[in-house]
Amino acid sequence: MTASRRRLLVAAGAGAALGAAGKGAQAAGNPDNLPPNQPEWSRTLGPGVIEEAYGTRSRHETAARRYVPWLTQDRQSSVSFTPLAEMNGIITPSGLHFERHHGGVPDIDPSDYRLMIHGMVERPLVFTLEDLKRLPSVSRIHFLECPANGGMEWRGAQMSGVQYTHGMLSCSEWTGVPLKVLLAAAGLRPGASWVLAEGGDASHLARSIPLRKLLDDAFIAFGQNGEAVRPQQGYPARLVLPGYEGNMWIKWIRRIEVGDRPWFTRWETRTYADLMPDGLSRQFTFVNEVNSCITNPCPEKSLRGRPGFVEISGLAWSGAGRIARVDVSVDGGDTWRTAELQEPVLSKAVTRFRIPWEWQEGRQAFLQSRAMDEAGRVQPTLDTLRRVRGVESIYHKNSIHTWLVDRDGTVANVQID
Amino acid sequence: MTASRRRLLVAAGAGAALGAAGKGAQAAGNPDNLPPNQPEWSRTLGPGVIEEAYGTRSRHETAARRYVPWLTQDRQSSVSFTPLAEMNGIITPSGLHFERHHGGVPDIDPSDYRLMIHGMVERPLVFTLEDLKRLPSVSRIHFLECPANGGMEWRGAQMSGVQYTHGMLSCSEWTGVPLKVLLAAAGLRPGASWVLAEGGDASHLARSIPLRKLLDDAFIAFGQNGEAVRPQQGYPARLVLPGYEGNMWIKWIRRIEVGDRPWFTRWETRTYADLMPDGLSRQFTFVNEVNSCITNPCPEKSLRGRPGFVEISGLAWSGAGRIARVDVSVDGGDTWRTAELQEPVLSKAVTRFRIPWEWQEGRQAFLQSRAMDEAGRVQPTLDTLRRVRGVESIYHKNSIHTWLVDRDGTVANVQID
């Protein structure tokens, strides 16, 4: 801080705070760092309480879901991506949760909502939303990932940021009624082993799910991050299948049919099937494989003009349980260091990892993260994935991802296998 | 379901789902439970992705922060309450986080924001928001409670619902830079033992805080529930003091001064001091005492017309650490049962508890919850609290609260000590 600048501030009466700093010490950084002299907001009253009875974010914040125009023919059977670079903890704000729907977002009046349970049960049941809310419920923090996450990379596209390479991923606190409660009320008939879950929107997406998953940890959620499930996430109620791929978490769910074999719906034979190198089709992939991505730095958060300390940070997740370890490389996988996992490390939730790093201007680096889960699964390389699954797949890409930090600090999405 | 109703539905072509149920089984409940016949939303496409690039809730949802007109003279130095009866997990949606401010909500341009650290330090420092975001950060789920929560009850008012008796309580995932990082950069001088934290809004609320708390688990938060801190909660940055009373979590924080004794600001000598029965003033109450409330049923969620199974559910919290146990009574404290604590049970975060109950129409019940924390603290009765602290206090009320479930199922706020 220059003396004249300091005098100016004190003379202008910037207040006790600045006065004390001015007297006692030298400012640490760039003089441009100094606070504005008596900013307007320090001198005037702002709006009072319940100006926003339901609050919104600051007008200075602009994080947004985005979509890729060339990826789908319309926006009603399409996908939007969560701006992962803007996230900082493990919870995704509901307003930024990625979207994937096949017939647009239905506008459902909750008083008209019904959920039917039928098929191989003793007593077919129809529940109103109020019925569901009266039953015992659970709240759980779980990630939700579309299996197409990263699919564009698999085919060789190199999208321009982590929002597009990994942004079909969100993590919420979901609340609802365990399926084991609902199925116990209906009474399972002998031989029951699968269910069909079907959505109430115009696309009627329907998936076959092993009954054992429903009796384990599945629930019908009406709550998301403390309030009602959002319309884009299935309002007023959706299926939550912790650790299972997102398209099975049926939104706007209207019925669960119990049976003794899978239904082989068109979603299973065509949409969510993978063509293998030998020409056969891979069906019924349930669990999201262990995966991770670095969200700082990333193409959206470059290091231009920011040499020195960098906290490399990102998200890791696995449908098989807890994340056990995340290693980070800054040299494209030649050497690895183990990152710190932030508590709480929850089962089938994203886990944030952090590791300090020093970036020197003018120096290239290839950043990678490699997650391991408690089941012992480890992320493969893209090369390994392509060798096993071929190049026709777009689903279940969980390979190690690479960001190139270029000499000038810009960050690019590259494939270095 | 009557046969004619069932035929009508099948004849009208309600689809395979209803057809299958109609053929195979009897409906379980009231025929009025049946889904609307081919609802509009099942036949038409809805809006596509990024119709809301930043999403909002369903137009059918109306939960809102509320305030009490007679409680304060204006809305700029006032409080609004979180609708706890509408919550279902542990996370409070940021749009429903309670508000407490003393000069309205400042509109701060983040590029003009500065945080100064000065006083008994080697190097006074001024940080921009970008500076803070580049440093190592942590994310933690913590409750935030105003010490006046429940204060109206202490004086004998019986507010009409849990929103007003306990709604100065919220719980968020906060992200930011540990104070120990910032203070290490500034360098503490020998003898430093207290800090003064001051807000940048027009009220300049300032509180003295023991330095050891800042070196323990305090941080400057710029993130709340995965996005930027909301304006009403201190945008762009606030102090987070896990487990400490809310007024010390300085919002819009502009400076931290290091010293060797408390400052005895007017907030400490007048506002947040308690007049004891002996005429002395009780100052510097830091930790939120162990507390709990039942959010279902409650005055806002009555049991009218809902005899039978009830899941009694609520929230428990303690500034001293984890909740160890919550007991629930339905007979005004004569007998107690231990509730289930929902995982994850996090330190200095709200914990949801649940316990099943059967309510018989025509029968009165007095519902109470009593929380214990890992430090061994137990909620007192209101009677005990008044004996020790007198009747002039409004802060730190953590006594056992009672809901009367009346014969007709309505729920009222009563004091039965």
Automatic annotation (TrEMBL), chains A, B:
Q: Which SUPFAM superfamilies match?
A: E set domains, Oxidoreductase molybdopterin-binding domain
Quick one: where's region Disordered? 22-45
A GO molecular-function annotation: molybdopterin cofactor binding
In what residue span(s) does the Moybdenum cofactor oxidoreductase dimerisation domain sit?
288-402
Keyword hit for Metal-binding? yes
Q: Which cofactor does this sequence's record say it needs? A: Mo-molybdopterin
Pfam families this protein is in?
Answer: Mo-co_dimer, Oxidored_molyb
Q: Which key words tag this protein in UniProt?
A: Metal-binding, Molybdenum, Oxidoreductase, Signal
Q: Which InterPro entries does the entry link to?
A: Ig_E-set, MoCF_OxRdtse_dimer, Mopterin_OxRdtase_euk, OxRdtase_Mopterin-bd_dom, OxRdtase_Mopterin-bd_sf, Sulfite_DH_SoxC, TAT_signal
The processes (GO biological process) annotated in the record are: sulfur compound metabolic process
Highest taxon above the source species: Bacteria
Q: Which residues form the Oxidoreductase molybdopterin-binding domain?
A: 102-265
Q: Where is the signal peptide?
A: 1-27
Q: What is this protein called?
A: Sulfite dehydrogenase
Q: What species is given as this protein's source?
A: Falsiroseomonas bella
Upper lineage is: Bacteria, Pseudomonadati, Pseudomonadota, Alphaproteobacteria, Acetobacterales
